[in-house]
Fold these 2 entries.
Entry 1:
Amino acid sequence: MKKISITLMAIVCSFLLYSCTTDSVAEIDGLYNTQSTEGDDGDPPPPPPPPPPGANDE
């Protein structure tokens, strides 16, 4: 009886892992498609210019 209950538990748990959606692979891959932003294309933007001399003197 113990083996039967363990087998049934394994079957029930395996059914919980299945998805009932009809999403295509292309739709799922679209979720993980990242768009490059500024600097991601291998050409990072230059650093900002330094502040003028005496700008931080107060």
Note: The longest helix spans residues 2-16.
Entry 2:
Amino acid sequence: MSFQDRIESGGVGAIMLYFCAVGLLISAGYSDTGWVTFTIAAFPVLLLMLFVDVFSSRLNDYWAGGNLKQSTRRLSRFGEPDDLYFSAPPEVQEQIDYVDDLSYGKNVSILSGLLVAVSAPVVGFLHLDWVGFVAAIPVCAVAVAFSRWAIQGLNQQALKKPKIYEAHYENQ
């Protein structure tokens, strides 16, 4: 997957983290020209996306480990799971690649939601003392709910992979 595809697959989580970083820079009193602020705010998002790209399989195992193991057992009926992808026709490979792209976006969303949930109360407390901490609690709750939604989506995608292969191999 190309760098541009990774950015596009980052989705809502990357956008949420980006705007939180912009807000943090503005609230911290960083007063440079607008484009510099928006450029600096992109660095945490890019670092997070690089982290997800490098550790994608470990993150998938962590968030959807049970469902991935169940899917692997279901795939073993058709042969070795690693060989299935390369022996499948191009349209099946495209569907699997699409599911993998979605899982990348879900991992970005999970981690960005958790980062916002952890950092919002801390930043609120540092800027406005206890009032800021209390004001950040709804932001924290929304970010945690967003991460939970992404984890559920990742688990559903883990269960979807065998269905793609089953549809292909049962029709033969």
Note: The chain has five helices and no strands.
